[in-house]
Amino acid sequence: MKNYLRIVVSCQNDVHIGSVIGGFIADYHGDILEENHYVDRDNRTVYLRWVISIDVTLISYAGFLFNFESFSKCHDFQWLMVDASQKKRIAVLVSKTSHCLLDIITRQEEGELNADIACIVSNHDDLRLLVESHGLPFHHIPVARNNVTEANRVIKDLLVDYDVETVVLARYMQIIPEVLCQFYHGNIINIHHSLLPAFVGKSPYQKAFDRGVKLIGATCHYVTSELDAGPIIHQDVSRINHTFKPQDLVRVGKDIEKKVLLRGLMYHLEDRIVTRKNKTVILK
Amino acid sequence: MKNYLRIVVSCQNDVHIGSVIGGFIADYHGDILEENHYVDRDNRTVYLRWVISIDVTLISYAGFLFNFESFSKCHDFQWLMVDASQKKRIAVLVSKTSHCLLDIITRQEEGELNADIACIVSNHDDLRLLVESHGLPFHHIPVARNNVTEANRVIKDLLVDYDVETVVLARYMQIIPEVLCQFYHGNIINIHHSLLPAFVGKSPYQKAFDRGVKLIGATCHYVTSELDAGPIIHQDVSRINHTFKPQDLVRVGKDIEKKVLLRGLMYHLEDRIVTRKNKTVILK
Amino acid sequence: MKNYLRIVVSCQNDVHIGSVIGGFIADYHGDILEENHYVDRDNRTVYLRWVISIDVTLISYAGFLFNFESFSKCHDFQWLMVDASQKKRIAVLVSKTSHCLLDIITRQEEGELNADIACIVSNHDDLRLLVESHGLPFHHIPVARNNVTEANRVIKDLLVDYDVETVVLARYMQIIPEVLCQFYHGNIINIHHSLLPAFVGKSPYQKAFDRGVKLIGATCHYVTSELDAGPIIHQDVSRINHTFKPQDLVRVGKDIEKKVLLRGLMYHLEDRIVTRKNKTVILK
Amino acid sequence: MKNYLRIVVSCQNDVHIGSVIGGFIADYHGDILEENHYVDRDNRTVYLRWVISIDVTLISYAGFLFNFESFSKCHDFQWLMVDASQKKRIAVLVSKTSHCLLDIITRQEEGELNADIACIVSNHDDLRLLVESHGLPFHHIPVARNNVTEANRVIKDLLVDYDVETVVLARYMQIIPEVLCQFYHGNIINIHHSLLPAFVGKSPYQKAFDRGVKLIGATCHYVTSELDAGPIIHQDVSRINHTFKPQDLVRVGKDIEKKVLLRGLMYHLEDRIVTRKNKTVILK
């Protein structure tokens, strides 16, 4: 029997750390399924990711983790070890539009998404039927001008109650409060319906239409307290022309949005992303 | 023997103008080689473009033009008629980088570009050898802080002397003065090395690197007096990732820039572009 | 009150037919919403498409149709007139995989697909639950070696009973018999999971894997009696690399397949496609 | 002072070889500039590539090579070590079309191509002027039905005389004989103007036109004795439609061809490609 795990490492000033950790893995007869290295010369930093399996008759997951922790103390690197057999628990926050949410649910049902959907939270009740028809819990938490703080507290409690690890904003049209950004730091993923940094904020398709651009895009990024300014994970575009009215941009954009969000979310779920300052390294 | 000509029309509030003009063309036994229509419902405007040939034994180009002008007075539309056998005369303005210029020259030599290159003007002398080796006139007009107005006057005189119709800014790193924008209104094409409206102004690749975007792009647009804000003609992108340093963006960007500029320039040379407010309709 | 209709015309040897028909439309005060022309010089053929509205207080749809038919007899062109307010009735034929079918159903529910789904037919019973949960009729018609003719007769009767106009093969893994190809000539659309003409027939992803290609694709085409050889409507590709195993090609391919099928189907539903010999002209 | 070198390794049945070799590099205080790993589970093979620098005051290139060779004998892996400061010498074989050749020459002049162009060989004399204007040697070796063997012998002798390592077929319209395929095994790169395996052999654009495809492509591959059947390195496509005549496919195709050939050639020049059976692993 095997334990599968992911190890993600970043390390400054020691380009040989990869072979050192590789040696540690070899010592425990770990089998290497994936291995990704990136050497950032300018910042003197290496980024490493392994997917390995270890034989439980040789060492337990806990034992390997314990020993790796000890081993790491003799070296100077940041690391993360994840039990690859445990799916991450995600919550999806939505408003009224269903396309991104439905894509996530369908992929999850078809086994393409390595995650458990813990719950759906919305500031509107519109998507309740859709969500519940897939057997998922739906929570309607209205957010009005006079209850923002309270509503966000309720949302946070919900996420904690559901043991949520990753929060996906699938066209959720509310600002995420600083306190939630902090609490789920590096684990809130948003899809913005423009090619950031163009068209930050509201109504990007209308702005794109008004400017007469010939490509529209979408951006998947981590959420930070500054609006639409977090580390970018993935982006893609679709060609448009003068015949496209704002409603056509919305329609075409839906397909890019779900595609870009899905890709970004999958990178996150597979622990392929390391953020450094306001940027992402994606190990694939 | 045939005369080839292009007719480009825009018309408000009369969707049937196309068949009326089509009837006019038929009356003169014009042969239709290309025909493009676009009906903009929201603005109640139709855009039309024909490439036709007329038999010179039946009517001369001048005669046809004269009659079309009379005919147009009975109707209410904007129009442009171009002798398709006459290549447009272009001037290319450059600074130090050669990739866009060289692409234009090579395409022209290979017969892919329907234009005559009248001259190359630069604020630096670096590309003289390259230009002259292709048998083209090169003019070095230095632009310094204290001679901007005078330099731009010299440039304008040059363009006029060379009978230039279309000015191509192929990575020309100077502001085009208002007076030149006016004089060549709708006939100055620029390539900007970002996906506008993102990264307006200087050093877009460095800004793209700093923001950590996952796609870089280029924009071909008409020049107006507001910097990087004119009507967009064409845009394209290239995928990048965390391994790309600023110099890699510059290198990858060069290929997008020349591709986007060429495409936009060809639309212009073939009279496919109609501008309306700050946007372009491209009839193809 | 308005009647909306589409007129699609192809005509040989008369480039001015467009303005003649345009004049006819103008005579009835038809309002032009869309107009597309393509002049194929080499084959001396013009292809035309209009979307127009006519005022029912001036003339009924039937009246306009009758008069157009009379008018057409004085000229020599092929034509098709379609009541644009009537959605086409489609049947979707599937086997075991659901992704293309589910995409079609979802788009239809979201109002993106201008069609009514009459029924789903499958040679397997696997997708019954999915189909019926969307309130659509599902028919399981097993096809075995010894009942092919009978099964196909049953399928044809079903399609006729449901008044089906367009048959969509959404990964239906059976040969369509000659008789059905004839009966629904020009109205059966297939998605093939390769970039035709590469990898005709079975297991294209395995063949693509074995050949070591760097792009995989999908092709939407009209079905003719020759396997995977009908007129191509739309194609697209996705980049792969050496890390992709056959099952990865299947997974990535699913997204291209549904995208390409949808696009091709929409062209068909909007009467944008004219076939000539074994090729398509797509008026957009 | 530094020596820069590339190490490319493939190894069966030992997933830990990466850290072992990494340890060897660390022992010599090698600085790691790039590191790429790919674990092919199905074939139990790992592919590894490093770009490293070593301090010449610690060990010479020859010394490091000698020691690595000894070290490799204690393990079971294939390897290649290349002095990264030495540019590969390439010969370009062409017929009459210049676009791929000119792109290679221009890139080389601009410092984008990590190679020295040793000579240009052609079966026609058409491109002599172009080649010689760039100061490069041009050899016209006519190939006629009755002198094929002799002509190819002359070509081989030329390539050997020029000390050529990599042969680039930049639209060279002759079959490469078995003997040359063998001699330069894994070092002859061809650009084929279709998306292989579609349209093998002559006139792929005409075939693509006749079939009515909606995408055309190009394929860069290693040459083997079977025509157009060698390991594929890179492919790309461009969208076309019904308005494209065969000559348009040729024109549009030129841009894809040079882009695809350049990318494939650069992978080769940077020693990123490992072939296994008839496929390529590209370490980037």
Structural overview:
The structure is a homotetramer of 284-residue chains. Chain A is an alpha/beta fold and 284 residues long. Chain A has two domains: 2-83, Alpha-Beta Plaits (2-Layer Sandwich); 88-282, Rossmann fold, CATH 3.40.50. Chain A contains eight helices and 13 strands. Chain A has helices at 17-27, 61-73, 99-109, 128-133, 148-161, 178-183, 204-211, 246-269; strands spanning 2-12, 31-40, 45-55, 78-83, 88-94, 115-122, 138-140, 166-169, 188-192, 215-222, 232-239, 273-276, 279-282. In chain A, the strands form three sheets. A seven-stranded mixed beta sheet of chain A has the order 7-6-5-8-9-10-11. In chain A, strands 2-3-1-4 form a four-stranded antiparallel beta sheet, with helices on one face. In chain A, strand 12 and strand 13 (279-282) form a beta hairpin. In chain A, helix 3 (99-109) packs parallel to helix 8 and helix 7 (204-211) crosses helix 8. Chain A is globular. The two termini of chain A are 27 Å apart. The mean pLDDT of chain A is 96. Chains in contact: A-B, A-C, A-D, B-C, B-D, C-D.
